[in-house]
What we know:
Layout: H1 2-5, H2 16-51, H3 60-82, H4 87-95, H5 99-117, H6 120-142, H7 146-199, H8 204-234
Amino acid sequence: MLIFLYPSPFYWWRWWYWLALGVVGETLIVLSSLSDSATAAQVVADMLRESCNPAEIHTAALRAQVERALEYRRRMADAMANAPAGPLREHLQDTTAGIADWIRNIFSLARRLDAYQRDDLIRSDRANVQAELNALQARLEHERDEATRAELQEALQGKTLQKENLERLHGTMERAQVQLEATLTALGTVYSQLLLAGARQVDSARSRRIEESIREQVASLSDLLGAMDEVYRHGA
Length: 236
């Protein structure tokens, strides 16, 4: 429009300067958009890493799994930042809106597993509880004093309950470890699906499947974390 209204605003101005200026302006807008998206993606990644700091996980294998989850999230953010501004980028962002919650649940799960695996007292209790149970049973069989027998029976019941709780806790943690590995695999699958979605025209059916997968994983991990808390509340 300006090329027609003001073809020569200055005596030295040439009409084609407007065309060149327009090209430069569009280039700056694109670069600014890319820069803003990349910066935003980096800020989000940094905030997530701060709240899910792998350094808080002492067990090397679990810490590596948290690092892997964060790396998937970082690469997803990069893929979205590199997508053309507009409907595609917005669609990818909407599709992966639950990823941060997923990562937080992975971190919470890893932290609980880390605490359990490093708990020397629970490990000692699991190693000794059966022998202690057998010893109480043997004493009860040979004890003749009724008052002492009553105390031994009460101790035997308490020790039996402790053994059951320890077994339940161990079983829950074993399932949690398997679930952690499975959810990381699912996260990797979502990452690859996201790359495919960004490389072609948006497929609403595929996007819905990705969203459903994310929601299912978040819900599944939330349920598992709740079950772990319940077992801990009943004590070992």
